[in-house]
Amino acid sequence: MQLAMIQDKIIPLADVDKAYLDRGIFFGDGVYEVVRSYNGRIFDLEDHIARFKRSLGEVDIIGVDIDNIKKKVETAFSQANISNAKIYFHVTRGSEVRDHISSVDIVPNFFMTVSEIVDISEQKNNGIAVSSHPDWRWKRCDIKSLNLLANVLAKMDAEKKGCGESILVNDAGEITEGSGSAFFTIIGDELLTHPLGHEILPSITRKVVIELAEEVGLKTVEKTITPEQAKQADELFIAVTTRDIVGVVKFDEAIIADGKVGPYTKKLIEAFAKRVSI
Prior knowledge:
By secondary structure, this protein is α+β, with helices and mostly antiparallel strands. It has 8 helices and 15 strands.
């Protein structure tokens, strides 16, 4: 008899709830998005949905109605009645008995949560410390997949060190991005960030920051830098959907500039706040 054990209970495999047989659990076989709202309005939903559609296509998950996904997000957000919300949703290839190759008629699974955004005003005022960590992720970081174990381990390492984010460094000794954020360096009037490609996520918040850079007097340059170069920078910051823009005041053991959130970073924080209030 084919069977399964859940905690201490043995049951026939045929009776197992499909949630336990999700390919997202077995293989990380799925993609996700995180969207947020400001004052009761979802920000940049179209861009997030477009990235989600691209991720689905890159991993060949078919049979997903993108327009219906958008409607689900809007409906759940409306019913949650949370003004400043974090909206997480994912689609996996589906559920069936574990095998690397899925059946041709497998049906994708959808899951979503809507929760309140945590207040990080203290981080924005004072900045955060970050720590470097090897970039152990797979080679298609441009796909927002559920394969996040390397990100989790890096984030746990930063937490143990009392840091607010882990900055990933590839085998060439170059910074790619944060474990859950885009990473930016300011030197003079230049805003430096890793070029788009398979090595980093095409972050929606990163895109908005680059759009705002010219408004505050910065020239964006997409290039790679090393941790040592970052430590000598005038300013550093991270950018991510759930935290917007947060200044970095310490990188590993190095204090950045005067140890305070820099003037350009403050201007970008203000410009970003104006953008999301439109």
